[in-house]
Design brief:
- Keywords: Membrane, Transmembrane, Transmembrane helix.
- The protein has a single domain, classed as Rhopdopsin 7-helix transmembrane proteins (Up-down Bundle).
- The protein has 8 helices and no strands.
- α3 packs parallel to α5 and α3 packs parallel to α7.
- The longest helix has 34 residues.
């Protein structure tokens, strides 16, 4: 049977590999957000909001990895098994990352649907629940750090399960809504295929890893001693979320530089204009 120290070591090793991939996509994302492909000249229309969010996610991902390392070192130096206080902080940091990414996805959906609040209203309820859960995670984590105990272990796990369900719901519904609106209104077949592919790929990637984490948490609760699958799924889920977020921005920026349009509607949140035609590639106003 794999010991807790071995479990955390394996999970942290997997986390380190994916964090390395995330770092690579982060620097590449910053490069495409700040510079064009034409001699690395600085962009005139830098999207500072996306750049700031990218740096915030980077900071949170770095803290998450640092806490993962600290948890591993604590498990190696102590014979006590179970959830360490650092793990509770990791859950709070990871949950904040998920809330930010979900918020960006809902914002993207809002823009694609011509800023219709009626469309995104249903997505705001699970997002608000996740924000409330995040506050609870942070509060419980601060108590556990002060007392150096795991008194809220069961409550955190149960709340985290519902948090993941809300995240999956937001991703599936919002991604499907975006793809539907692009398919219905986009007049450029090439743009349609490109936008649908990157939105669907990134959404599926994040949704699949979240679903995997939810399943492993549920199995671990039903049958004790199955911590390795849960910790591996957790080590995979949130770095992949950051990678998926970066890939959307990278691909959109590359497309904008390689094709004669200024911006991509569903991904850059701003109306694009095709320089070779007299019409705008804009989504039609939503009838919803």
């Amino acid at each position: 049977m794999v010991s807790y120290a071995q479990t955390t070591t394996i999970a942290t090793a997997a986390h380190a590999i994916l964090f390395g991939v995330y770092i690579a996509t982060f620097f590449l994302c910053c490069r495409w957000l700040l510079f064009t492909d034409d001699g690395w000249s600085k962009r005139k229309d830098i999207k500072w909001s996306m750049l700031i969010v990218t740096f915030v996610i980077f900071a949170l991902s770095t803290v998450d990895f640092a806490m993962s390392l600290r948890t591993t070192l604590s498990s190696l130096s102590s014979s006590a098994e179970g959830l360490h206080p650092e793990s509770t902080i990791s859950i709070a940091v990871e949950s904040l990352t998920a809330v930010i990414i979900d918020g960006v996805l809902i914002f993207r959906c809002w823009i694609v649907y011509d800023k219709s609040w009626r469309v995104v209203a249903g997505f705001l309820f699970p997002l608000l629940y996740n924000i409330a859960s995040l506050i609870v995670f942070t509060y419980w984590g601060s108590i556990e750090l002060k007392t150096m105990t795991t008194i809220f272990h069961v409550q955190i796990v149960r709340l985290h399960e519902v948090f993941l369900i809300s995240t999956i719901l937001i991703n599936v519904c919002a991604t499907s809504a975006i793809i539907w609106q692009i398919w219905k209104n986009c007049i450029s077949p090439h743009l349609l295929r490109f936008a649908t592919r990157i939105v669907a790929d990134s959404g599926l990637l994040y949704t699949f890893t979240s679903l995997l984490l939810l399943c492993t948490i549920s199995v671990d609760n039903a049958a004790q001693g199955l911590e390795l699958p849960r910790m591996l799924a957790s080590a995979i889920c949130y770095p992949v979320a950051g990678i998926a977020y970066n890939l959307i921005l990278i691909r959109a920026a590359q497309y904008r530089d390689n094709d004669p349009i200024e911006r991509l509607p569903s991904l850059e949140f701003i109306t694009p204009v095709d320089t070779n035609t007299d019409y705008e590639l804009t989504p039609q106003p939503s009838r919803v």
